[in-house]
């Protein structure tokens, strides 16, 4: 850090340095019921006693109470669930011996947990992973003999629950369900997982078991409430972190402005990936083992490539000590990279968040976070990968050219000393719940007794499912009567609809799938599509057959879809007056049509051109937060460009909402107009980009005063003169960022907030 600060060319890029002091740990005694064999094995691994939070969480679980342990990275959450889990397998009475189901959001984390389990050499623990990488011939052994199964929500949804009869012996003895990295189950994905867990509880009850849930999470606000929404159970929270921590230095870093100009002559900053690549190379030269977290697969590859190029000039002998890591690699390649990092054969690694989620890599010295990762919880999770062995650590957040990133690097108080976010999910979303009711009925016929389990809207949805021929009502309950698989109705990581298959035209090779809702913006004709490091250009998108044909290519640009959007208010659910202004929350219909795509140079973000598209409109029923100004207020604004001012305020508010709702700006959208037909007033909407809503707009409504004050501050603090990507320009604007009025947005937001609650 001192060397970076001493470099006159870089000193101005560091906007803030935070020193996080070391913290002493607090030990506890082993619970009396801990198997002696486990105590001996842990002692051999260097663990002589648990931390207080580990013992407290383990005692709750052993007593039959579902519990969430929400403590910092490297605080030993795995030991908290390992103690009761192993104890259930080591019961003295064989008839009471239990089984354990472990769920993680990534294969890498499950593989890492399996490695840790096997290193303890506990002969009675028959642990095995059950995921897409498990060979067919091994799956039967896992079902029949394993007593500690590590899997993911996808396999539970598509394989284990639909064929629960083959898992009867395992489910009958299921004592604990471990939900690791629980903070990652948010938005639509989290809502789907919540319903999968309810289906699991229902099937377990069929076999006479009622497992205790143990959830492990990064620090999060309201952990007990979140865990209860996820599982449908009462959950106790343990969030007092008693583990020790080495000192850490955390720097906020803003790339410099370049001579390049973007849309409408706006200044363009050096890209965060280019800046991160240079930083990674510098740290490798210093022998500082560093992990760079990058938001996208392509970004991870770009950072690694940039670091290698820099090293070829400065220290060519170190080029092979840098690599990229991301999902999509073969399992053996991922394991090899993880092993090389542990052995320090690799000094620099650029990774997507595939390595964020708990892979136990100790000994790292530094972490670079390339772009705000979406939440404070995720930021601390990533930064916590360094210094896990107790040594001093360095973390650097490199800002992207984006309103939220720019705001944060100039408002360190929004990161440091501020509680992390609450996880947002909505299990009652009908577009999520309906397919899971069908899946549940296919597993076991639904009865009146199941209605409470799946939530208050279940009774209203069942008649519609019967009317559509998805379920059949009989005296004993509701039955799935179709031949196709009910589980296929729910794409738990997508937004529903038939996935579009991405096929290489020359070979017929299936490269992957894209959920139907995203197809118009990601695999339209001319789109750049990336698969496992290979780059393709989409030649044809056939929406009738749900196929996108692509050809391999090596373009030096990326593509971004442009669309036009109309919005109609269906129902206003809540409303509050801010003087003459009004804040609202409710149901809306959003009609979007992708009309063109833009091409931008990869290294600089420079606009290269735009091409038109002919795609049909799509209508989304979702939830939105919106605000209006009265006619009198509009008159007080004077001679402003109302459309440009509202449009700029809309863009900036979309950019800042992820700070208050656990979402990405790509999860939400917006519409602004000087006169909306449904309100008759100047109106700005921000809506959830998922069918039925995902809880983001609702969180925006609840935190509107704080959110919109921060939006105005972000615009005012930006050093540009008339608007740029760091404040009011949006990379996904359907109108090409025109019109936009930065000054007008400041005046308009000041009028809106003049009678708003003080944040």
From TrEMBL:
<dbReference type="GO" id="GO:0005524">
    <property type="term" value="F:ATP binding"/>
</dbReference>
<dbReference type="GO" id="GO:0006289">
    <property type="term" value="P:nucleotide-excision repair"/>
</dbReference>
<dbReference type="InterPro" id="IPR011545">
    <property type="entry name" value="DEAD/DEAH_box_helicase_dom"/>
</dbReference>
<keyword id="KW-0347">Helicase</keyword>
<protein>
    <submittedName>
        <fullName>Helicase</fullName>
    </submittedName>
</protein>
<keyword id="KW-0378">Hydrolase</keyword>
<dbReference type="Pfam" id="PF00271">
    <property type="entry name" value="Helicase_C"/>
</dbReference>
<dbReference type="Pfam" id="PF00270">
    <property type="entry name" value="DEAD"/>
</dbReference>
<dbReference type="Pfam" id="PF22982">
    <property type="entry name" value="WHD_HRQ1"/>
</dbReference>
<dbReference type="InterPro" id="IPR027417">
    <property type="entry name" value="P-loop_NTPase"/>
</dbReference>
<dbReference type="InterPro" id="IPR014001">
    <property type="entry name" value="Helicase_ATP-bd"/>
</dbReference>
<dbReference type="GO" id="GO:0043138">
    <property type="term" value="F:3'-5' DNA helicase activity"/>
</dbReference>
<feature type="domain" description="Helicase C-terminal">
    <location>
        <begin position="279"/>
        <end position="431"/>
    </location>
</feature>
<keyword id="KW-0547">Nucleotide-binding</keyword>
<dbReference type="InterPro" id="IPR018973">
    <property type="entry name" value="MZB"/>
</dbReference>
<feature type="domain" description="Helicase ATP-binding">
    <location>
        <begin position="58"/>
        <end position="238"/>
    </location>
</feature>
<dbReference type="InterPro" id="IPR001650">
    <property type="entry name" value="Helicase_C-like"/>
</dbReference>
<keyword id="KW-0067">ATP-binding</keyword>
<dbReference type="InterPro" id="IPR022307">
    <property type="entry name" value="Helicase_put_actinobac"/>
</dbReference>
<dbReference type="InterPro" id="IPR055227">
    <property type="entry name" value="HRQ1_WHD"/>
</dbReference>
<dbReference type="GO" id="GO:0003676">
    <property type="term" value="F:nucleic acid binding"/>
</dbReference>
<dbReference type="Pfam" id="PF09369">
    <property type="entry name" value="MZB"/>
</dbReference>
<dbReference type="GO" id="GO:0036297">
    <property type="term" value="P:interstrand cross-link repair"/>
</dbReference>
């Amino acid at each position: 850090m001192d060397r970076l600060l001493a470099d006159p060319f870089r000193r101005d890029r560091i906007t803030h340095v935070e020193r996080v002091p070391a913290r002493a740990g607090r030990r506890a005694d082993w619970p009396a019921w801990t198997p002696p064999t486990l105590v001996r094995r842990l002692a051999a691994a260097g663990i002589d006693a648990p931390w207080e939070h580990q013992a407290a969480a383990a005692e709750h679980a052993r007593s039959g109470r579902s519990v969430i342990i929400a403590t910092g990275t490297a605080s030993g959450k795995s030991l908290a669930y390992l103690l009761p889990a192993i104890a259930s397998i080591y019961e003295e009475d064989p008839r009471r011996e239990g089984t354990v189901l472990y769920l993680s959001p990534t294969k890498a984390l499950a593989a890492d947990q399996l490695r840790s389990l096997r290193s303890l050499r506990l002969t009675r623990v028959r642990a095995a992973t059950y995921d897409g990488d498990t060979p067919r011939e091994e799956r039967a052994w896992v079902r029949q003999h394993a007593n500690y199964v590590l899997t993911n929500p996808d396999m539970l949804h598509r394989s284990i629950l639909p064929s629960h009869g083959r898992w009867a012996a395992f489910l009958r003895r299921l004592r604990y369900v471990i939900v690791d990295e629980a903070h990652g189950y948010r938005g639509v994905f989290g809502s789907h997982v919540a319903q999968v867990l309810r289906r699991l509880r229902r099937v377990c009850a069929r076999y006479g078991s009622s497992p205790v849930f143990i959830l492990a999470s990064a620090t999060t606000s309201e952990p007990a409430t979140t865990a209860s929404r996820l599982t449908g159970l009462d959950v106790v929270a343990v969030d007092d972190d008693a583990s020790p921590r080495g000192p850490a230095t955390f720097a906020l870093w803003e790339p410099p402005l370049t001579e390049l100009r973007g849309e409408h002559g706006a200044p363009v900053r050096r890209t965060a990936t280019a800046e991160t690549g240079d930083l990674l190379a510098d740290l490798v030269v210093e022998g500082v083992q560093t992990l760079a977290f990058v938001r996208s697969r392509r970004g991870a590859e770009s950072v690694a490539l940039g670091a290698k190029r820099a090293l070829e000039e400065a220290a060519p002998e170190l080029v092979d000590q840098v690599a990229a890591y991301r999902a999509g690699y073969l399992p053996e390649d991922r394991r090899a990279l993880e092993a090389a990092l542990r052995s320090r054969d690799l000094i620099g690694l650029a990774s997507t968040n595939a390595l964020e989620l708990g892979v136990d890599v100790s000994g790292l010295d530094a972490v670079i976070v390339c772009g705000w990762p979406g939440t404070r919880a995720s930021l601390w999770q990533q930064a916590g990968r360094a210094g896990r062995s107790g040594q001093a650590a360095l973390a650097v957040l490199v800002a992207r050219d984006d309103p939220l990133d720019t705001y944060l690097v100039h408002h360190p108080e929004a990161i440091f000393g501020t509680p992390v976010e609450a996880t947002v999910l909505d299990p009652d979303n009908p577009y999520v719940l309906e397919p899971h009711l069908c899946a549940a009925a296919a597993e076991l016929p639904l009865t009146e007794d199941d209605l409470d389990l799946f939530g208050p809207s279940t009774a209203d949805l069942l008649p519609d499912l019967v009317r559509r021929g998805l379920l059949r009502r009989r005296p004993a309950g509701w039955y799935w009567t179709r031949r196709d698989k009910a589980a296929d109705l729910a794409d738990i990581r997508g937004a529903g609809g038939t996935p579009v298959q991405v096929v290489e035209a020359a070979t017929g090779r299936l490269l992957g799938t894209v959920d139907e809702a995203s197809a118009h913006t990601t695999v339209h004709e001319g789109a750049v599509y990336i698969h496992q490091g290979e780059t393709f250009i989409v030649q044809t998108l056939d929406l009738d057959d749900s196929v996108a044909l692509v050809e391999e290519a090596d373009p030096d640009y990326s593509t971004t879809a442009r669309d036009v959007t109309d919005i109609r208010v269906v129902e206003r659910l809540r409303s509050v007056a801010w003087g003459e202004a009004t804040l609202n929350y409710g149901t809306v219909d959003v009609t979007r049509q992708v009309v063109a795509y833009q091409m931008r140079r990869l290294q600089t973000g420079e606009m290269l051109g735009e091409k038109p598209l002919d795609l049909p409109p799509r209508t989304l029923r979702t939830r939105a937060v919106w605000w209006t100004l009265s006619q009198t207020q509009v008159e007080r604004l004077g001679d402003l460009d109302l459309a440009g001012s509202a449009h700029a305020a809309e863009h900036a508010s979309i950019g800042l909402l992820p700070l208050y709702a656990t979402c990405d700006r790509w999860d939400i959208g917006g519409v602004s107009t000087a006169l909306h037909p449904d309100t008759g007033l100047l109106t700005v909407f921000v809506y959830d980009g998922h069918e039925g809503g995902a809880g983001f707009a609702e969180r925006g409504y609840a935190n509107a005063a704080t959110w919109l004050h921060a939006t105005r501050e972000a615009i005012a603090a930006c050093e540009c003169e008339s608007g740029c990507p760091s404040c009011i320009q949006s990379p996904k604007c359907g109108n090409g960022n025109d019109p936009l009025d930065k000054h007008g947005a400041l005046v308009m937001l000041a009028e809106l907030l003049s009678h708003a609650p003080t944040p």
